[in-house]
């Protein structure tokens, strides 16, 4: 490829991060523009640098790679994200894809797989790795979310959903969970999308019917 692919690396393990940088910078056409150790810094660097590719460790302090991928798609739409992880289960793959990740790659993949994944994603395609990939693609093709919707909700989204079911508004939820009202609103939009509903009432009903949260206590 003739274009230089600019890359952001986010991983809280220094040796892995530095090794990854050295590997990529030895390849013609690759340029690492930022190297950070947590998810919040990854989002900030993506906003400032607008790299073509963001390599995100799934388990980082403060903000996970999945959450970072979600936010990076908002602050830098041109950036394509690749989640790096040791997790092989389909739930994690689905959650990453729903968050906007363009690829899911296991950390024990060899260097040629990583290079190829970066090039595939840079071309605008998606790359999946691991034994869960075929199952996940099958679920997405069939639109089968009956067993995965609950798994796609993060613990924080479950907390918000439980308060919605109790009748709390965004301000009350924000105060109880120490979040901003804007964050609550953004999370609710994501919850609505995952549940396939259009508003708070539908979300509350769906949450109780599917057993995602306990029914509100009778007054």
Structure description:
This protein has helices spanning 14-25, 39-49, 65-75, 90-98, 111-122, 132-142, 149-152, 155-165, 170-177, 181-195, 200-209, and strands spanning 5-10, 30-36, 53-57, 80-85, 103-106, 127-128. With 219 residues, it is an alpha/beta fold. The chain has 2 domains: 5-142, Rossmann fold (3-Layer(aba) Sandwich), CATH 3.40.50.2300; 153-209, Arc Repressor Mutant, subunit A, CATH 1.10.10. A 6-stranded parallel β-sheet has the order 2-1-3-4-5-6, sandwiched between helices. Helix 10 packs across helix 11. The termini are far apart. The model has no long low-confidence stretch (mean pLDDT 81).
Q: Which secondary-structure class do the elements indicate?
A: alpha/beta
Order of helices and strands: EHEHEHEHEHEHHHHHH
Contiguous runs where pLDDT drops below 50 for at least 5 residues: none
Proportion of residues in extended strands: 5-15%
Describe the largest sheet. Answer: 6 strands, parallel
Reading off the top of the CATH hierarchy, the class of the largest domain is best stated as Alpha Beta
Distance between the first and last residues' Cα: 65 Å
Kindly report the average pLDDT value: 81
CATH level-four homologous superfamily name of the largest domain = Response regulator
Task: Tell me the number of structural domains.
Answer: 2
Helix content: 40-55%
Shape: elongated
Radius of gyration: 19 Å
CATH topology of the largest domain: Rossmann fold
CATH architecture tag of the largest domain: 3-Layer(aba) Sandwich
Task: Give the helix tally.
Answer: 11
């Amino acid at each position: 490829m003739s274009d230089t692919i600019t890359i952001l690396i986010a991983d809280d393990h220094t040796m892995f991060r530095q090794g990854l940088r050295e590997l990529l910078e030895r390849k013609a056409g690759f340029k690492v523009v930022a190297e950070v150790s947590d998810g919040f810094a990854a989002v900030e660097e993506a906003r400032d640098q607008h790299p073509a590719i963001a390599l995100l460790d799934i388990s980082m302090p403060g903000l996970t790679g999945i959450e970072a991928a979600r936010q990076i798609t908002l602050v830098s739409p041109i950036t394509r994200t690749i989640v790096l992880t040791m997790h092989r289960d389909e739930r994690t793959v689905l959650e990453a894809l729903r968050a906007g990740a363009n690829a899911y790659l296991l950390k024990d993949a060899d260097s040629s797989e990583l290079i190829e994944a970066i090039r595939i994603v840079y071309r605008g395609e998606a790359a999946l790795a691991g034994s869960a990939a075929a199952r996940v693609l099958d679920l997405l093709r069939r639109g089968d979310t009956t067993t995965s919707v609950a798994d796609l909700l993060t613990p924080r989204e479950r907390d918000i959903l439980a308060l919605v079911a109790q009748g709390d508004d965004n301000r009350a939820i924000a105060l109880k969970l120490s979040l901003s009202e804007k964050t609550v609103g953004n999370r609710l939009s994501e919850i609505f999308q995952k549940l396939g509903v259009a508003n708070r009432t539908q979300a509350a009903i769906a949450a109780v019917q599917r057993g995602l949260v306990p029914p509100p206590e009778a007054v």
